[in-house]
Amino acid sequence: MTGVVNCRGGHRLSLPESGKTALLVIDMQRDFIDPQGMCAVLGDDPAFARAIVPRVERLTGWARTQGHAVFHTREGYAPDLSDMHPAKRARRGSVSEGPLGRFLIRGEAGHDFIDRLRPAPGEPVVDKPGFGAFHATDLDAQLRQRGVTHLILCGVTTSCCVHTTLREAVDRGYTCLTVADCCAALELDDHDRALDLIASEGDLFGWVCDLSALTGDAATRESDCTIRAMEARDAESVMAIYAEGIETGHATFQTDPGDWESFSAGKLSAPRLVAQGADGTVLGFAVLSQVSARPVYRGICEVSVYVADRAKGRGVGHALMAALVGESEAAGIWTLTAGIFPENKASLILHAAHGFRCLGRQRAAAIMPKGPMAGHWRDVLRLERRSDRVR
Q1: Which of 45, 53, 128, 219 is the most buried (most CB within 10 A)?
Q2: pLDDT 10s digits, 90-139
Q3: What does 185-198 look like in DSSP terms, one character per residue?
Q4: How many CA within 13 A on the CB side of residue 364?
Q5: What pLDDT shows up at residue 1?
Q6: Is 381 helix (H, G, I), strand (E, B) or coil?
Q7: Is 161 a residue of the active site?
Q8: Which residue is catalytic, options 7, 27, 154, 225?
Q9: Alpha helix segments (H runs only) across the chain
Q10: What is the pLDDT of residue 391?
């Protein structure tokens, strides 16, 4: 046996020896991931897809060391669209070309894999004229010829090509494992809804796990900061960083940071954390707010993590969040919540990387008072992280 995988929901799945398990890496193509690809040209932000690339690299490396076959799929069509059915052609839209060529056309630059996830020599590539990898391809025949009975799925997008392939595989009798943090959709709520569907009706579409359940270790983000408890002397720096976040117009409905006394009064006394740079300056902070004064809800708190503009991209947010999660669990807090604008992709990626899942979208939560979307009703994604240690 390859081993027993600890899956979400307390389930366990035994993967058979090499030869009977295959990894499907679904559609890691430039049109879906590249900033100049189809998705970006059509106005979507492929940030979530880019964020999973390092994890998919680790997953493919793990599968190869285990002796599992690795299959790569690409969605694409003939230049004359002869293999695209009429209904899909009708939905194609007026914009069908960008800097990487015609969208999803075989032979164009956008149709190809991103450089970091090119197939290794000898690994099969399945070019599929549709969402599902089994539709109008020989994938099923290739898998059965190898004696494959179990499939591990990753790639993009969770709610479309990954889920379609998963459903096709289940109908063909394969045992399927979806690696949640190695999949992505264009929106986080679509991703998490798709994962919830897998577990619906008694795990109808198989099992779900995170990468660490397979590789045995969690990826860590390097940072050059030190995390310590917030002190009174940090007040000015904390309020300045908070003000920077407000000015972006994508962090909060708040229009003004107010004074330290009011800010501090609304937060738990501990944990309160700051990230300190090598020069002693404060680079970011993380605090918790009680969601209700009722004692029964004492273990439910809302998270606030802010990083100074000058420190973004240095792993400061990840260091703060990891420390905040650990200290909140030690304090007996069992649920962390967050409300985040869908446009704040960096914050959503940060929260998802530390175990937060999207419960849903609160549509038209309020009118934005300032920033680039001032005067517009804004949606808010509601996220939650349940502690595994505190029940």
Answers
A1: 128
A2: 888 777 999 999 999 999 999 999 999 999 999 999 999 999 999 999 99
A3: -SSHHHHHHHHHHH
A4: 0
A5: 41
A6: strand
A7: yes
A8: 27
A9: 30-33, 38-41, 47-51, 53-66, 86-90, 139-146, 163-171, 188-198, 200-203, 211-215, 235-248, 260-265, 316-330, 345-353
A10: 53
Is 128 in the active site?
yes
Active site residue 88: no
Under DSSP, is residue 58 helix (H, G, I), strand (E, B) or coil?
Answer: helix
Token pair 């407000």 is found at 246
State the Cα–Cα distance between residues 361 and 190, nearest whole angstrom.
10
What is the reported pLDDT for 104? 96
Which pLDDT value is given to residue 2? 54
**CA 382 remoteness from chain centre:** 15
Average confidence (pLDDT) per 10 residues, the chain, 391 residues: 82 90 98 98 97 98 96 96 88 88 97 98 97 98 97 98 98 98 97 95 93 85 91 97 97 96 96 97 98 95 98 96 96 97 97 96 97 97 88 53
Query: Which structure tokens are listed for 168?
Result: 């096709």
227 closest CA partner among 284, 303, 287: 284
Name the active-site residue from 34, 128, 183, 225: 128
**What pLDDT, on the 0 to 100 scale, is given for residue 95?**
79
* Beta carbons of 42 and 33 less than 8 angstroms apart: no
Question: Measuring CA to CA, which residue among 175, 51, 165, 38 is closest to residue 112?
Answer: 38
Residue whose entry in the numeric block shows the structure tokens 């049109």: 31
Give the whole-angstrom CA distance, residue 113 versus residue 118: 6
Dihedral sign (CA 304, 310, 313, 318)? negative
From start to end of the chain, where are the E strands? 3-6, 12-15, 21-26, 69-75, 97-98, 101-102, 125-128, 150-156, 175-184, 207-209, 226-229, 273-276, 282-290, 300-307, 335-340, 357-367, 377-386
CA–CA gap between residue 337 and residue 304 (Å, rounded)? 9
Distance of CA 133 to the CA centre of its chain: 22
